[in-house]
């Protein structure tokens, strides 16, 4: 079923039965229906002819406008029933009996042909069969000439031609589907590679910015001072934060974490992915709350954690101090709650 839907989708794309071109096709279809059925006004009562015209016109709209492929069964049943019902309406006069015209069958055949393109081959042929039964009854009861009955084969030929066309186009549809899948996979692979390259370049730029000076000192073989050793310790912790919590690796939070660590505070930053899809203002609020706690901490430990996606709480900041512990929670709506 999934493959059939994909093929019909590609066939509609191939024939231009979507977007603006679909509306142009609809106008042409309705104009063709009108040109055929206008001839009924000369030989059939007005009200049945108008009803039949409206029925076939609406069926033409339904078979094209609904975007789901294959066409839903409710719409399919309406389109299939419209052809024989409209033929009956324009072939029978309560006063004079059966008429000798089959113009409605010609118009309805185009609607049934489009139904084949919408993935309802069997239903379309069921509509052809129903219309054929009506024409046969007209031929027997009204004594229609053989030439008229032979002309009624044209609707069958219309649906048969479109059915053969869809069968011939199946290999092309499969090729288009495979090409589409390959293009999608290639685009996804290229996007993944671009993201990986971008992240690598960002990490390299950050490493070059923060670590190059001290690495050059080490490469030169210089003896590091106590301050430089302390700087190495803080730098190592900052680089570890960038790997463990990339979404928290901002200049504001890095500076606050560096300051807290220099005062002897143990800082842990954890990122479990909850920032995905979160608006920028909410991220800024979490980072600002974490930076405030880090700036005010002089001892103990501070743990900043972004929780997994789908949680009510977006992030937590846990402060463990000798005098008291404090927990700050920021939920997905931006509300901040502090508990001790």
Automatic annotation (TrEMBL):
Ranges annotated as spanning the membrane: 21-39, 45-66, 73-92, 98-117, 124-142, 148-169
Keywords in alphabetical order: Membrane, Transmembrane, Transmembrane helix
Native organism: Nocardia callitridis
Keyword Glycosyltransferase part of the UniProt annotation: no
Protein's recorded name: ATP-binding protein
Domain of life (superkingdom): Bacteria
């Amino acid at each position: 079923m999934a493959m059939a839907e994909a093929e019909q989708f590609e066939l509609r794309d191939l024939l231009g039965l979507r977007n603006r071109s679909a509306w142009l096709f609809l106008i042409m279809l309705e104009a063709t229906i009108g040109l055929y059925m206008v001839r009924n006004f000369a030989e059939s009562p007005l009200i049945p002819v108008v009803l039949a015209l409206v029925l076939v016109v609406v069926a033409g709209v339904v078979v094209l406008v609904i975007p789901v492929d294959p066409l839903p069964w409710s719409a399919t049943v309406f389109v299939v029933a419209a052809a024989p019902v409209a033929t009956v309406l324009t072939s029978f006069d309560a006063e004079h009996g059966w008429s000798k015209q089959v113009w409605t069958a010609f118009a309805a055949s185009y609607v049934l042909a489009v139904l084949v393109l919408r993935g309802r081959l069997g239903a379309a042929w069921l509509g052809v069969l129903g219309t054929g039964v009506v024409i046969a009854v007209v031929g027997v009861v009204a004594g229609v000439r053989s030439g008229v009955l032979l002309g009624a084969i044209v609707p069958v030929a219309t649906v048969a031609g479109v059915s053969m066309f869809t069968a011939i186009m199946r290999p092309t549809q499969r090729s288009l589907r495979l090409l589409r899948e390959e293009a999608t996979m290639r685009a996804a692979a290229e996007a993944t590679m671009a993201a990986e390259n971008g992240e690598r370049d960002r990490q390299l730029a950050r490493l070059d910015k923060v670590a190059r000076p001290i690495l050059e000192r080490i490469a030169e073989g210089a003896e590091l001072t106590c301050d430089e050793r302390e700087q190495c310790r803080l730098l190592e912790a900052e680089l570890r934060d960038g790997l463990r919590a990339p979404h928290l690796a901002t200049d504001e939070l890095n500076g606050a974490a560096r300051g807290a660590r220099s005062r002897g505070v143990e800082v842990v930053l954890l990122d479990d992915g909850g920032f995905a899809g979160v608006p920028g203002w909410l991220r800024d609020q979490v980072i600002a709350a974490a930076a405030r706690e880090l700036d005010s901490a002089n001892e103990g430990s501070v743990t900043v954690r972004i929780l997994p996606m789908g949680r009510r709480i977006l992030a937590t900041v846990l402060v463990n101090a000798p005098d008291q512990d404090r927990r700050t929670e920021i939920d997905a709506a931006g509300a901040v709650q502090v508990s001790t």
